[in-house]
From TrEMBL:
Protein origin, superkingdom: Bacteria
Identification of the protein by name: Alkylhydroperoxidase AhpD family core domain-containing protein
Database matches in NCBIfam families: ahpD_dom
Domain Carboxymuconolactone decarboxylase-like positions: 21-96
KW Cell cycle (keyword) present: no
Molecular function via GO: peroxiredoxin activity
Entry annotated with the keyword Coiled coil: no
Keywords: Oxidoreductase, Peroxidase
InterPro entries in alphabetical order: AhpD-like, AhpD_core, CMD-like
Gene3D superfamilies, per the entry: AhpD-like
Annotated source species: Amycolatopsis australiensis
Length: 162
């Protein structure tokens, strides 16, 4: 499948993309650990089947020092031993926040409580915003058939002018 439109080359898409990338910079510059940001973005992207975002966040995580073992186990984080309790709470929030239609309650009180045990208010705000942003990014890329494979670390940050 070929991409339906190059949003980066379209005037409206490019203007929106720049603002979207700048919103992402707010989260990236927050106190939420970079590794957690990438793991959460990767997990939501896996659930949504977004090749572009899986490519991006796998490469960004690796460039930031994330291990291949952890990256390979994100999809099966519950059945692995390589994630901290804080990361497990963030991954649970990412999954529940991504699969809103699958559960009448959305994010469970149990998951919210676990997140609050490990993250302060600013980190929680960043985490919630990140889950919303990555889900929006997944939808943009999947709708236009943006394919994974060509992303280079730092590419999107450079696009934002960061």
């Amino acid at each position: 499948m070929e991409p339906r439109i190059d949003l980066f080359a379209n005037e409206i898409g490019a203007r929106f993309g720049k603002r979207f990338a700048n919103a992402g910079q707010v989260v990236e510059r927050s106190a939420l650990p970079k590794s957690t940001q990438e793991l959460v973005s990767l997990r939501a992207s896996q659930i949504n089947g977004c090749g572009w975002c899986i490519d991006m966040h796998t490469k960004e995580a690796a460039a930031a020092g994330e291990t291949q073992a952890r990256l390979h186990l994100v999809a099966a984080w519950r059945e692995s031993t390589v994630f901290t309790e804080a990361e497990r709470a963030a991954l649970a929030l990412a999954e529940e926040g991504t699969r809103l239609a699958d559960a009448a309650t959305g994010v469970s009180d149990e998951t919210w409580h676990r997140v609050r045990e490990h993250y302060d208010d600013d980190q929680v705000a960043a985490l919630v915003c990140l889950v919303a942003l990555i889900n929006a990014a997944n939808r943009l890329a999947v709708i236009v058939h943006q394919k994974g494979g060509s992303y280079e670390p730092g590419m999107f940050a450079a696009y934002a002018g960061a």
